[in-house]
Amino acid sequence: MAVNIVLETIKKRRSIRSYRQEQIQEAELQAILEAGQYAPSAVNQQLWHFTVIQNAALLAELNTSAKEAAARFEDEHVQKLGKNKRLNIFYGAPTVILVSGREGALLVGADCAAAVQNMLLAAEALGLGACWVNLTVFAFAGDKASYFKQRLQLPEGYQPLYSVVAGYKKAAAVAAPVRKGKVVSYVR
Ligand SMILES: Cc1cc2nc3c(=O)[nH]c(=O)nc-3n(C[C@H](O)[C@H](O)[C@H](O)COP(=O)(O)O)c2cc1C
Questions:
Q1: Average pLDDT taken over every residue of the chain
Q2: Which residue segments constitute the domains of the chain, with CATH numbers given?
Q3: Please, which pLDDT band fits residue 143 given cuts at 50, 70 and 90?
Q4: Atom number, ligand 1, closest to the C-alpha of residue 177
Q5: The pLDDT of residue 142
Q6: Which atom of ligand 1 is nearest to the CA of 17?
């Protein structure tokens, strides 16, 4: 089979957790956002909303609040991350795209997840680093939830579900770990 750039990009994409401070170009941001909006959605509802956050002070606030809420969460792994003083959940990325879904919409979590994956692949295709960061939504679970919703001007009735952080990679990504086997069955 001939080399295919899409398949190559899928295999090359990694979660990047170290970024340069420099902001990404507007054209790169728009290409990533467009890729997100071209994801499939249940009954083509497209009931997602993308909030671009490029304000360092606000990102610092979100980081603090998300970690405070994560530290109180029942899951041990999440709790540990919340309590990790050295962790910045955005890894210093200058751009964070929060993906929200319309509350109560059919399979909207799946729609938003597909949009996230499209954006991660777009970032990789453009030579940028990106990471799917779920911890962000913890900021909307704590007592500052309505403050953040207002500050981010989230549309009424939309719930933050996931986020993508993006920026220029500080270091080259390491190779992808070997895939865990035995996950495919064939019935032919
Ligand atoms: C639903 C979901 C939530 C994730 N949340 C986080 C997160 O909060 N922080 C983080 O650093 N990585 C997060 N990741 C990235 C995973 O840790 C990463 O995809 C996994 O370790 C495999 O590494 P790779 O993306 O480099 O292949 C998340 C991934 C998914 C699919």
A1: 96
A2: 12-167 (3.40.109.10)
A3: confident
A4: 27
A5: 77
A6: 11
Q: Record the tokens describing residue 6, joined without a space.
A: 């899409």
CB distance 109 to ligand 1 below 6 Å: no
Q: What is the whole-number distance in angstroms between the Cα of residue 13 and the centre of ligand 1?
A: 12
* Residue 112 DSSP SS3: helix
pLDDT at residue 18 in the model: 96
Is residue 132 in contact with ligand 1, taking CB distance under 6 Å?
yes
Q: Within 76-141, where are the H helices?
A: 76-83, 108-125
Q: Judge if the beta carbon of residue 91 lies within 6 A of ligand 1.
A: no
**Any atom of ligand 1 within 6 Å of the Cβ of 70:** no
CB environment 5-34: b (16+ within 10 A), e (fewer): eeeebeeebbebbebeeeebeeebbebbbe
How much is the pLDDT for 40?
98
What does residue 13 show for φ and ψ, rounded to 5 degrees?
A: -60, 135
Are 24 and 167 within 8 A, CB to CB? yes
Mutate to test the pocket of ligand 1, among 19, 118, 121, 133 (most ligand atoms within 8 A of CB): 133
Q: Whose CA is nearest to atom 22 of ligand 1?
A: 15
Strand order in the sheet with 48-53: 48-53, 95-102, 158-167, 129-133
User: pLDDT-derived band of residue 13, with 50, 70 and 90 as boundaries?
Assistant: very high
Q: What letter would DSSP give residue 39?
A: S
